[in-house]
Amino acid sequence: MVGLQVSYGDGSFTVGDFSTETLTFRRTRVNNVALGCGHDNEGLFVGAAGLLGLGRGRLSFPSQAGRRFGRKFSYCLVDRSASSRPSYLVFGESAVSRTAVFTPLVTNPKLDTFYYVELTGISVGGTRVPAIRPSLFKLDAAGDGGVIVDSGTSVTRLTRPAYVALRDAFRMGARDLKRAPDFSLFDTCFDLSGKTEVKVPTVVLHFRGADVSLPASNYLIPVDSDGTFCFAFAGTMSGLSIIGNIQQQGFRVVFDLAGSRLGFAPRGCA
């Protein structure tokens, strides 16, 4: 047993012991899994029973136990505020949904932790946004830029030029809706109080080989109890873009590491 200290980008950290243990999943035993036991958990870790690392790094659970499960897993994230159904995580062959559309995983030799994919464009209202070019999301030789799919990030962050083009296209398509003041990191909000139904532009993420059409609830979200909804994307000055968990809600997201591909199955939580 050795000491453990891990820090995350949001300032959360854990300090404790690092050891190995045998884990049992139903009737499947996985020996010598490296895990940490935190004695001082701060930040977003406070109150959590634990943290299961699902990244591509050597210490993540899929990397340690991948051979026992065919190097395949998937998860489905439900909207905690609107559903009584639980989210779930599946390992093995049954993790791969037949209805998923797949895009190849991209390898970043400089940073092996994240799941990089190739985003080639975004459509709003059925039309590709011209200014959102594949070059905005390119992973360069130095390991900078690119697009990752991350369950631990809430709001999708797009490199600033791509976000501004997306936001402006959405504002144009939703120009008949009453605007509301900015809220937190959201700069495109609407006052939908008193309305039971509204029409908003469609949003489609175009990955290489896979078009992912987002439900409206995955990009226009309530931020208060007074009918204020905000466009759930944000810009970043970093070259790295992140597909967050709000946009993944309701999809079964499939990580087929054996096939080096990532899939999205719409309405996959049923």
**Percent range for helical residues?**
under 10%
Alpha-beta content class: mainly beta
List the quaternary state of the chains: single chain
Unreliable parts: none
Number of helices: 3
GO biological process, one term: proteolysis
Domain Peptidase A1: 1-265
Family: Belongs to the peptidase A1 family.
InterPro entries: PEPTIDASE_A1, Peptidase_aspartic_dom_sf, Plant_Aspart_Prot_A1, TAXi_C, TAXi_N
Report on this model:
There is one protein chain. The protein has 270 residues and is mainly β. It is 9% helix and 38% strand. It contains three helices and 21 strands. The strands form six sheets. The protein has a five-stranded antiparallel sheet with strand order 5-4-20-21-6, with no helix packed on it. It has a four-stranded antiparallel sheet with strand order 9-8-14-15, covered by helices on one side. Strands 12-13-17-16 form a four-stranded antiparallel sheet, with no helix packed on it. 30% of the residues are buried.
